[in-house]
Each structure stands twice: as C-alpha cells, then as structure tokens.
C-alpha cells in the first residue's frame, strides 16, 4: 500500500455520516462485554456495539474477548471448576486457564466479569463482580431496546477463532447463520454486522446467507500474513465475499519505531475504489495506545488526545471507527460536521 505524507488529497465524499462503533462497549470506563459497558457506549454516542463471540460447550454464542476465561471473569475463584483448568493451543498460541468450550451456558452464568486490563484501567476494577456473561441474543436485544427511529443501534460482532472452534466440533459459522435467522437479522439493513479475520468464515457465511444479506467485514491485522489483503488485487478479492474491511489503524496512520506518526497510507482510497467500507480498529485514549505526539505526560495509562486521532481518521475518509471510548469519536465527528457547515470567510 502506497505511503504518503501527512498532507493528502481530500477524501472521497461520503454518502452517510461516519459511524462510531463501541469496541466491546465502552471498556475505557467499564469492564468490557458487560451490560454496563454496552449501555454506556450507547449513552456516549456509539451507533453500534461490538461484541467478540466465542462458543460454549452447548453451542451458545457468548460475548467474551477470547475463549480463555481467567482474565475477564472470576472463574479462578470458583472451586467447583478448579479441575477444568488446563493448557491447550488455540490458533497457534499456548494458553493455560479455563475455556468457554468446557462450560455450558448455565455454568457460565455463575461467573462474574472482571476488568481484563487492570494495570491500564485500574478504576474499572470497582465494577468487578457486578455483571455476568451475555449471549449474542442478549446483546442484540439490548441494541433493539435502545434503538429509536431517528437513532438505530446495531451490533457489529467479531467471530473469534471460527476454524479452530469447528475443529473442536463446534461449527461456528453454521451456528452464527442459524442464530442470525432466529434473531431475524439476515437482511442487509438488519441489526447485525459480522466481522472475522478468517476469509473462509466470511465466505461460508456469504454462501449460506446469500449475496444481499447481513453485511460482512474482513478484519486485517497491523502487519504480517494478511499483507496481501491490502493490495488492490487483495481488496478486489475481499469485495467478492465481504462488504468492508476493518484494518488495524496502523495500516492507515503510519508510525515509526518510537511511536511517532510519520505519514498515512492510501488504504482508504484503495478500499473505496474496490467498493468496500473502512472501519479501523482500535482507538483507545490511554497514552500507551496513542501516537507519540498525542500522548499527555509519561504515565502509560494516562489519558492522551484520542479525539484528535479519531478526527484525523474521519478526515481521511474512513466510514467508521472502532473505539474503546465512544465519546471521543463522537466529539471528533461532531467537530468535523461543524467545520463542514461553517461558512467560508472571504479573505481580507
């Protein structure tokens, strides 16, 4: 993908206002994937809420960042489940802990959510133990409950490890397609959008649901094996089975080794030429996640200027942003809208 300087040509004109997607809700302020996190995300201006989906032993789709439970729940405190702690490889990564596929939904209901990054977000630990594990159906029900004719709220879900789950006897794409039908969410304008890093999972869903069905989005890592996907040929190939891409923000905002912003790529323009929407991830307000020039102070967990980062991405023409702090992206969008409506002053 071609790199350019920070000054770029004006982005293509959007047909709609860009969308704010609350990544796992609003985890900058509440433990992720909890009812409180999703509710707050909507209150802070999110147009969509984004659950990560994994599977239980009885084939229920639940919202967790990963299938290993010890970082995001209090499972380690449940002596009745002590014998289920084990080590296994998940998509090439060796993990030790408790795994969703070893629990029924009823058993998961006994667990309580905790803050997954307490070192970065210590204030969120005040909410540990207050909320349980949600199913996809419950997240969709929340979005529908909070939707109004003037402000619909949708769910943009990520499928975690679909091929790996299929190898464990849990065919995730089939179960997702069945659940979308059960929830009445197979239409292009329905309450659901589905994302995955695995092209095969998206292809299977498109074949199962049909060409004018639930929008599908190809997730793309910052670098590595998916590099071919962001070439013009790769983007055209994605357009045969998906409606958009969700690249790591570093694919658009280019950084040096020290975290300094050094330029921008033309990925947004190239994706739009292929007929794809663009939704970069993940915008986070803490210094450790921000470009050097947007950090404030030396504390990695201190809050920097995430609003400017969101504003830059909107100015580059992205169709949406996936963010841990929906309020900052909401304000950035409002700033750009105000700028667009401001009268042009004649030069003196």
What does this structure look like?
The chain has 348 residues and is an alpha/beta fold. The protein has one domain (3-341): Phosphatidylinositol (PI) phosphodiesterase (TIM Barrel), CATH 3.20.20.190. The protein has ten helices and 15 strands. The protein has helices at residues 35-43, 105-108, 136-146, 162-167, 172-182, 199-209, 232-238, 267-273, 306-315, 326-341, and strands spanning 3-4, 19-23, 48-50, 52-55, 61-63, 86-90, 93-97, 154-159, 192-196, 216-220, 244-247, 253-255, 261-265, 277-278, 320-323. Strand 6 and strand 7 (93-97) form a beta hairpin.
Mean pLDDT: 93
The first-to-last residue Cα distance is 41 Å
The low-confidence runs, each spanning 5 or more residues with pLDDT under 50, are: 4-14
What series of H and E elements makes up the topology? EEHEEEEEHHEHHEHEHEEEHEHEH
With helices defined by DSSP (H or I, 4 residues minimum), what is the helix count?
10
Query: Shape from CA axes?
Result: globular
User: What is the CATH architecture assignment?
Assistant: Alpha-Beta Barrel
| CATH class placement | Alpha Beta
Helix fraction bin: 25-40%
According to CATH, the fold-level topology is: TIM Barrel
Largest sheet descriptor: 10 strands, mixed
Strand segment count: 15
Structural class: alpha/beta
Q: What integer value in Å does the Rg equal?
A: 20 Å
Give the CATH H-level superfamily. Phosphatidylinositol (PI) phosphodiesterase
Q: In the residues, how many domains can be counted? A: 1
Strand content: 15-25%
